[in-house]
Model the fold of this input.
Amino acid sequence: MKAVRIHGYHQQPVVDDIPEPKISGPLDVIVKIGGAGVCRTDLHIIEGQWEQAMNPALPYVLGHENAGWIQEIGSAVTNVAVGDTVILHPTPTCGLCHACRAGDDMHCENNSFPGLSHDGGMAEYLLTSARCCVKLDPSTQPKDVAALADAGITAYHAVRKALPLLYPGTSAVVIGAGGLGHIGIQCVAALTAADLIVVDRNPDALKLAEQLGAAHTVVADGNHVAAVQELTKGGAHVVFDFVAEQGAENEGWAMTRRAGSYYVIGYGGELHIPTLDVIGTERNVIGNIVGTYNDLAELMVLAQAGKVTLHTRTYPLAQAPEALADLDAGRVRGRAILVP
Ligand SMILES: [Zn+2]
Ligand SMILES: [Zn+2]
Done:
């Protein structure tokens, strides 16, 4: 089969011909890929940023945002059948450890991460686990939803955790209305009555934010922290930071009101916060990594109801190097999706 493999860091991935994966465990499933999202994390993988954390054996197949159709199932699989349309939680988990029993998939003691730790879904077929499969309406086109498997779930997870804090009368700020942020905006709009303020450098992204449910938009032009302070009368109850680098992280903290919570979703920057400020204002910093299986299942309910939609651009699988180059150069509007 055709597959997009990384052979070395700081090199373009190559479209190779490799053997199809085979079922070995009773809960294994093989999915015929219908769409594989191209993510900024793939660029970071090529740059070598994930080498230490994941230590994958090279070459291996990229792709951690996958959806498709069940091609083959292991002997103990009961939740999906051959032919089912599925979107895949990114991490196969054991189901038996403390985190798994609490539904906290990302902290499973025995999880793996196809596309980061071993062969992923930028290929014709992917080997994963029955535990990853969220069954979809058969009319769903995998290429339309694939990016919800990582970008979408990550945005949803943060908003879902913040729901008890976002009762009527509260305010929420979304920093960054790009790939993840535009999904976060739709989740806040669909799930809460909070007054939603979106901050971005790009006026076009803010126009889209208004269409997706932002009550107010603020251009990040240097006066944006003061503008948010004024709109929220002293800071937002919850700030969702989808940028969290190049200074946005300390601005996001400054936009958070007393006893409020600052949710870190983007990454790359560093927070510098005096501990006196933490105790004096009782503000919280909340980390977020991908999401749970149930987060993905809930997000797909919103997606199938038309309450969360993705802007996508498709490329044939063989054009993966072009898709990665377009993403790197900022030429992709919405999300790039590879279709085998
Ligand atoms: Zn991703
Ligand atoms: Zn586990």
